[in-house]
TrEMBL record, chains A, B, C, D:
Pfam families for this protein: ThiG
Family: Belongs to the ThiG family.
Role according to the record: Catalyzes the rearrangement of 1-deoxy-D-xylulose 5-phosphate (DXP) to produce the thiazole phosphate moiety of thiamine. Sulfur is provided by the thiocarboxylate moiety of the carrier protein ThiS. In vitro, sulfur can be provided by H(2)S.
EC number(s) reported in the record: 2.8.1.10
Gene encoding the protein: thiG
Listed name of the protein: Thiazole synthase
Protein origin, superkingdom: Bacteria
Domain called Thiazole synthase ThiG: residue spans: 7-248
Localisation per UniProt entry: Cytoplasm
Recorded GO CC terms: cytoplasm
Source taxonomy: Bacteria, Bacillati, Bacillota, Bacilli, Bacillales
Length: 255, 255, 255, 255
């Protein structure tokens, strides 16, 4: 079957985007392999041009890098980080993250949209991290985003789909890939999001804090495929009680 | 890895038990293949010795049959059906179901335990369908059950793990395979049960009512494996807010 | 309006039964007053005939005492405690609790039913604490119970209505007062149970562990009345999106 | 106790704001009385200066009117409606609603903030209906809002607190009254919001669609007071299992 995800003109088999922020460099390769991820985020500060260890040495060549603008507190800072990233050879993809709030690390939709507009015009494939507000998502479409990445619940909370009803609205109304990012703590939650018609999942904390990191990456991969297949298969309905009687025993015993 | 499920001295790779009650016979083979099920339930009335179509002709030889006592309203009827099943060549495994209530189709733990005791003494591998009550589960252990099959939520309701807190108690306290049976409507719910440490899942309605039955069987298989792997990997914890600050942008830009 | 609760031939205005197990004696009176409770449980060990402080001195005369059989591990022990209670002058009402499990403190439905049958024949007004199993509830009806007291979630857990789907079944099928007991940690959970058609609520831990115990008792009282009124008023339905458009602005501005 | 709600310099005993949009005029008075509401919303189109029936004739004098800008699709329209409302004698209070989306009727935070800023400068007491986004709430504070009214779930859905985690953030971070508006379908949901520390509740559909409208208004009033009292009393904690053993029976029986 050719059920592929298209972002920025590139084709992906995998619908699991791996956040690399909390791994030791030694683990990244194994996690990518077990998770069969094809796109991996990258905080620029880990891709220094300097002499030290460089995360890029640990990521296979066929992986699409998704540098993020982690640390940006407004649109201007996000734009600067994105440009630096491209200069450093990290490619055209960028995950725009703007958080002026340092307690809850919630995305600032307004600044995010401004940065998205600027970067899209400069030829970036912009994937903004956002708070799932329908109006903001529409503005991001207008601004030239290549996908939208609504949060499932506050980052690092592992709470799952706190924003479920509003992500469903984005799935139904926004004509871009919807990628749930942040807050998913268990594979079952990733599966649930995919069952709703979400296009892909990004995950970091839940994998990074597992006892066996590589095996958890595999679990997420499997659950994401399961959810996608369930969505494609068409879920049955939740039924009310209807006394769906098995045929009576007597009929059988006497039959 | 040798993570196998043992029931009645038999070893299973698959943790997905397929209920066959609502399929057309033509579909069963495809569903078993896509779901990679190794155990399939069977209502005796579909395994008639007579001249008509026989479900057994559609189930591959390497599959363990799990005849159920569907239709039994008390222990005595369940015992009669189980014996008939063995005489008809359906093997030693039996899923004991006793439901005197015809509206909610809830299992009657008391009658179920009586039937389990009788059948276990006759050499059956008894897997009782039960309401997840800790005391009843202990009685079933004493009665010789080979596994216990607590319901997730009322049969056919697709509501998922309504009984979650009590199934967790069974997982923690009962030293037999715990198989969640009934009520799971989506792969994410099966995954969630497996993440809790449940040993296997039985599913019928959710697969049978899907748009694409074989693909949904595959989705359940994948989600069950995902949940099992997550359990083995060790889930990370749900965290409270802790201001897990990314390193400040300024440090990076000036660095 | 004459919406009264009848138990054992006695009429109650209040649908809030107060568990007294975790209070200092000094607080009980205030809690009863603020909660406007008319029935209060009593562990026999706090109603000693001896010279020390006696809880009965702190409970107003118009309150119906509900001695419980706390500590009983089987039917026989429960029966002994109940009889002692009556001899000590605590009246005809008794809450039968039998828990052989000391970890989760779950009620043992089988032993509870046996004790209920014996005590009902001896003229007690028996209110058994139970695990919400439809079959067990029916057995308790047959055994002569005056009400059934299903647990909402494991005692002391404050988790609310973990057993919601099964309590609804009791409400719909059992022709006795249904009193949710154990596990309710917040007034909103008591309200939710009452909205479902439950007849009364028993609560102890949530009140006893509040910062202001008397005010929390009042909060439970109010929420229970709110839930009862909502049930009587008839809840509106949860609607799907239907574009319930306000009349257009233009019409107004030009009108 | 002097636990009062202050909005725009006015003091309220009641924390229940009644939406009047879906009532027949005959019912409003009874609903206000049973709900003990002190503030009632008003769509301008129902307050015509013309000769027909005027909703203002049905609302007691001591009630604070809260005209809304229902129908506004952008800031400019909201401002026009608010000014008209003041000219018609509906007072200084205004609930700013701006919805350009006509399917889900979600508030447009950006346009809402613009309107809030203009109207606050003109001396209105502005209570904006909003999507619960922390950044938007901060902008509304800066714009001069007198309270913020985040939605609980999509309007008319009766789904309760879909946005719970994000409303909690507003409660913790925003130094204005937080009023949950829209989506609450049952008193228990209003109670739950109040337990979290929300300052008031606005409700319309759930009351208007009840079987007995006045009794449901009373149920909401009671549940809101219950939730407030629980918040003030200090909720106990949800505990893990801890084997909180009752004192052993033997001790009692032998004592």
């Amino acid at each position: 079957m050719s059920d592929k995800l298209m972002i920025g003109g590139r084709e992906f088999q995998s619908r699991f985007i791996l956040g690399s922020g909390k791994f030791s460099l030694e683990l990244i390769k194994a996690v990518i392999e077990h998770g069969e991820a094809e796109m991996v985020t990258l905080a620029l500060r880990r891709a220094n041009a300097g002499g030290e260890e460089n995360i890029l040495d640990y990521i296979p060549n066929n992986i699409t890098l998704l540098p993020n603008t982690s640390g940006a507190r407004n649109a201007e800072e996000a734009v600067r980080i994105a440009r630096l990233s491209r200069e450093l050879g990290c490619g055209e993809f960028v995950k725009v993250e703007v958080m002026s709030d340092s307690k809850y690390l919630l995305p600032d939709n307004y600044e995010t949209t401004k940065a998205t507009e600027i970067l899209a015009k400069e030829g970036f494939v912009v994937m903004p991290y956002m708070y799932p507000d329908l109006y903001a998502a529409r503005s991001l479409v207008d601004a030239g985003a290549a996908a939208v990445m609504p949060l499932g619940s506050p980052i690092g909370s592992n709470k799952g789909l706190s924003t479920k009803d509003f992500i469903q609205i984005l799935v139904d109304e926004i004509d871009l890939p919807i990628i749930v990012d942040a807050g998913l703590g268990r594979p079952s939650q990733a599966c649930e999001a995919m069952e709703m018609g979400v296009d892909a999942i990004m995950c970091n904390t839940a994998v990074a804090t597992a006892g066996n990191v590589a095996l958890m990456a595999k679990a997420f991969k499997q659950s994401i495929e399961a959810g996608r297949n369930a969505y494609l298969a068409g879920l049955g309905r939740v039924l009310e009680f209807e006394g769906e009687a098995s045929s009576p025993l007597t009929g059988f015993l006497e039959g």
